[in-house]
Amino acid sequence: MLKLKLVTAVAVLLATGQAYSSSQSIHGIWMRGDGNARVRIAACGPSLCATNVWIRDTSGGEEVGDRLVMTVAPDDRGRLAGTAFDPKRDLTYSIRIDIGETGLVTRGCILGGLLCRSIDWSRAGN
């Protein structure tokens, strides 16, 4: 079963240090809406990486240290959009990141946009 993880969606986030749709930085630690994961988003080379720093339940295959490598740029609506690569699963997703004042929403898709999942995130700290 294919699962789109926040880490997968966040890996696409890396082209810039600042969100284009908001004055808020995308860098920092984010908690997934279901409370099962925390990721650190930071620059990694020319990309952004979302790395799991805490996982409550690892039965779904998520582990601390898993990461997404994101290559994104602002789109015409001010969101970050591009691709995210999950090295653990050897999968590439299209990704879109909407950044707000207190949170962000990632939307990752596979199979040409036929299978998509959105995930809410809230800032956990820096």
Structural features, described:
It is a single chain. The chain has 126 residues and is mainly β. It has a single domain (6-125), classed as Beta Barrel (Lipocalin), CATH 2.40.128. The protein has one helix and eight strands, in the order αββββββββ. It has one helix at 6-10, and strands spanning 28-32, 37-44, 47-55, 67-74, 80-86, 91-99, 103-110, 115-125. An eight-stranded antiparallel beta barrel has the order 1-2-3-4-5-6-7-8. The longest helix has 5 residues, at 6-10. The radius of gyration is 13 Å and the shape is globular. The termini are far apart. Residues 1-22 have low confidence and may be disordered.
Task: Give a short account of the largest sheet.
Answer: 8 strands, antiparallel, barrel
Tally of discrete structural domains: 1
Overall radius of gyration: 13 Å
Task: State the assembly state of the protein chains.
Answer: single chain
Low-pLDDT sequence parts: 1-22
The global form is globular
Beta strands, count:
8
Structural class: mainly beta
Q: In percent, how helical is the residue content?
A: under 10%
Strand order of the largest sheet: 1-2-3-4-5-6-7-8
Distance between the termini: 33 Å
Please provide the ordered H/E string of secondary-structure elements. HEEEEEEEE
Question: Which fold name fills CATH's third level, the topology?
Answer: Lipocalin
